[in-house]
Design goal:
Elements (H helix, E strand, L loop, with lengths): L4 H43 L6 H19 L18 H33 L12 H4 L1 H17 L9 H4 L8
Length: about 180
Amino acid sequence: MGKNPEIVKKISRVVDFIQIAGVYVSMLFLVAMTIIISVNVVLRYGFNSGLQWAEEIAKVLVVWFTFLALALGVKQNLHISIQVLPRSLPRWVNRILDILKDSVILIVGVIMIIYGWDLVQFSSRSIMPATGLPGSFLYIVMPIAGVIIVIESLMDLFQVHSSLENFDTLMGKGDEDA
């Protein structure tokens, strides 16, 4: 099956946009969580009053940050991996191992979509007490992260490379370690 370079390029751009947006949203969640917790600590211990919703929103933000970071780490191979076999093996053996790795990641993403959606539906029957938000709001990020994981693993399986191969340079970190 041949690749249409124009379609592949468009898909790659969309996936790159999702990746960049996900990084910025994750950073925003981390900063917001830090500010909310800090303000709540100051209010609680400095003024004997806190924000009722702070703990609940911080929990939502940490769950969303964690799942988004998990999904975004797939593109950059940031997850723990054990390299049992040296990279000096023949190229075809390494390709088979990469296919196996990407297939396992794909399966994990599909499981996150299926069971994450079940969790969202189950938790939609409850309400978070401080904010009044549906309980599903806490877990809706799980199937979203699963979709990102599936997309990234499919891109790896089909060897579709993006312009974000050097993501640290794109994010302004450069090559300080070099």
